[in-house]
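hey so u asked for the seq, here:
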Amino acid sequence: MKMKQAIKYFPFLIIAIIAVFLLSLYFGWLNVFFFGAEHANVQGIDYFALPKSFLNLLEKRSIYDTWGGLPYGDKATWYLAHPAFSVFVASWFSFFTPWVSYSLFVVFSLFLFFLSAKFIASQTSDNFKKQITYFIVLCGMPTYWTLFVGNMHAPLVLALSLIFVSFLEYTNAENSERANKLLMAGLLLSFFTKPIVLLMLPLLLLLKETRKTTVKSLIAYVIVSLLFLLLPIFNPQSIGWSRIYSTAFDFEFIKSTMNIFQNNFVLNEYMKDNSIHWFNLIAQSDYKLMHIDVFSLPVFVDTLLGYETSARIYKLPIYLCLIFSFLVPFIEDKKIRMQSALLVLFSISFTFYLSYNTVWEYQYSSALPVIALLPILKEKQVFYNKQLKLFFVIGLLVCLPSLYFLLRNSDYLSAQSLTLIRLTRILPVLILFLFFSYQIIYSVVKFGKYKKIKLPDLEGLFFN
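ran it, C-alpha cells below
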C-alpha cells in the first residue's frame, strides 16, 4: 500500500528535478558536479554551431565552417552533424538571438528525452516501472549535462529508444507494422544526426524481420546524403566528387589531414566539404584526447597504467559485435533470436564508450534508454531474466554524478583522481557490455542452428 502511495508522488519528484535542472542552467546550482561548469566557460558550447551552420549556408559558406564569417554566440565547438540536420532542424533556431535560441533548444531537447521515455514506458503496464523509466531518462545527470552544453545528442537518444522498442514489438507482437515504423523512424533519426547505428546495419540486414525496413531507410539516407554532397546550394565549398571518392579509401590521409585537434582547430578545404560528416569518424579514430572531461575506456586505461596503449586493442568490442551480428540470425526460434538481437544492439551502442577515444560525459545520456529498459525486460520473460536486477542496479551508476564533486577540492588532475572520476561511467557500461556479450554467446551456442546459407533473390530481398 505504501508503495502505491509513493508512486502517486513520483511524477511530482520528476517534475521537481527537471525544474532544478532548468533553474540550474541559469543559477549554476549543479556546477559543483562538473569540471567543465566550474573551471571552463562551456555552457552552450556545443549548441551555437548548429544555427551558425544554417546561417553559413544562407551566406553561401560551408555548413562546417563554424568559425567563418560573423560569430554566433560567444563560443562554439565544430559542427559535425549530418548536413541535413542543419537545414531541417537547426534552421528553425537560427533566427533568434544566440541565448534565446539556446533556451529554445534546451526545451526542444528535453521534449525529445520525454518522447524517448514515453516510447520505452509504453512497453509496460506497471506504473512503477513507467515512472522509473521517466526518472532515468529525464533525471539522469548525463541528461542535465547534455542540456548544459547544448549538444544535439537528444535526437540520438530518441533514435536508439525507437530502435530498441521496435525489437520488443518484433518479439512480442504478431503484427510487425508498428515495429517497422518505429525502426524506420529510429534509423532515419540517427542517420541524419549522429550515425552510430551504421554499426547495426549488418545485423538489421541479415534479420528477415528488419531487412526490408532497413533497406528502405538506407535508400532514403543515401539519396538525401547524395543531394547534400552533389548540389552546390547545400555544399557550397565542395572539394568535388572525384576527390571525395579518392579520399574515402585513404584512411591514413584522413587521420593526418582532418583531425580537428591535431590541426589546432584550423579547418582545411577537406574539412569544409560536407563529406567531413563521415570522414571525421575515421579522422579521430586513433587520436586520444587526454582531458578530464573525456570518459572513454582507452583514456581511462591509459591514465590508470600511466602510458599509452594501442588504439587497435579497443576496436575488439566492435569486432565482437560484428561477429555477433552474423551469428544471431542463425537462431531459429524467433523469440530467442530477437531477444539476442536486442542484446547485440545494446552492445553496439556501448562500443562507442569502449572503442572510441574521445567520449564526453553528455554522451552517456544515450546509455540511459538501455538502463531504463532492463526492468521492463524482466517482465518480458527474456532468457537472461534472473540477472537483470543486479545489472540494472549497476547501470544506475551512470545516472548519478561522477565522483568529481568529491575530489574537486583535492588534486583532481592526478592519475588516481582522474581514474576515480571516470570510474562510475566506464565501469558500469563495461560490466553491462560483458554481461550482454556473455548472454549473446550463450544464446548462439545453445539455440543456433547452422546450415548452408541460402541468399535471397532480389524479389525475396525486397518484398518477402
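The chain has a mean pLDDT of 91. Residues 198 and 253 are 22 Å apart (CA to CA).
lmk if thats what u needed
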